[in-house]
Amino acid sequence: MSSVQKFFATCPRGLECILEQELREMGADKLKSERGGVRFQGDWPLCYRVNLQSRSAGRILWQVGHGRYANETDLYQLASSLEWHRWFSVDRSFKIRVTAINSPLKSINFAALKVKDAVCDAFRVSDGRRPNVELHRPDVTLHLFLKRHDFTLYIDTTGEALFKRGYRVQEVEAPLRENLAAGILRLADWQPGTPLLDPMCGSGTFLAEAAMMALGMAPGLGREFAFQKLRVFDQSLWDEACHAASDEETEPQSLAIFGRDRDQGAIEASRDNLKALGVLESVQLGHITAEEGEAPATTGLIVCNPPYGERLGERKALTRLYGEWGRRLKSSFVGWTAWVLSGDESLPRGLGMRPTREIKLYNGALEVRLYRFDIYPPKD
After folding, report:
1. Taking Cα atoms as reference points, which of 173, 225, 215, 198 lies closest to residue 60?
2. pTM (global) more than 0.70
3. What is the pLDDT of residues 329-355, one digit of tens each?
């Protein structure tokens, strides 16, 4: 098997540029951004490193087959010709996931069934028996991507999605995905050492991701990955990757990272999550409303995901919140830059400031906007 493999790293839509930058920094080659992810090439140590250290990726898919098709028979023929037994054991359970864009096939489920049959038949030839199909917690997940004329088969090297870091022991309503929060910090060009404030911190996702970045903590340390169940897995290379990532960590210390919220329950959720991550002492929490809080430093960065839609209830209360917060920003945060995420395009206008940048993103399936506001003193 060639030492250079082809991969596709998924990410929240809108973060492709951030993910591509991340992959380039890790040494990936032949990068190509597409909607919802980035194609790249590299060896297995790179695959391990990306799974272990990427902050913006969702999962890393290993390409094992590609071709053109007109019907389900074409899918079956190519899938059955692949040497699946070289990649995972017949004793491993598996399932098929399908994503289709402009596919001419009438039934995506039937396409998945044909690929499943092809894998099972290939194992019957190689091993004399077939692997089990497990829909809920399979050992191996195969991803079939269908376009209009061509298809690609992948083996998922990640398993549970990378945004599930494992530190979220408490949640609030409509939590922000961890990899989206980390990507937003990079979009905002936040650098460790620059004061960072989330005045509506909820369960503390921005705070946790910022602390991990500042302390050099690899998001994937301590968890298991799907590639560990593949026959191509190399334990010694994986141990090297883990040791290298551990060596980059610094001891928890007090950082200029501040989290506030009007809801005491949110502060408690943030505290529990930060404690589970091991960075509670690095973040300064306060039960303070955004409309009343003073700036914790002369300059810095605000990054937050304020309530929107039904999360705050009455529209009048929501509009009033933005108005009061906008006045506080202009009176107490002059010289700061605020990055505000919103699922309602009309609400940020209530801040009384003109955004200098607007970026479309997705939190799961929800379309949101990230607005940048440079805070100046109010006009006379």
Report:
1. 225
2. yes
3. 999 999 999 999 998 888 888 999 999
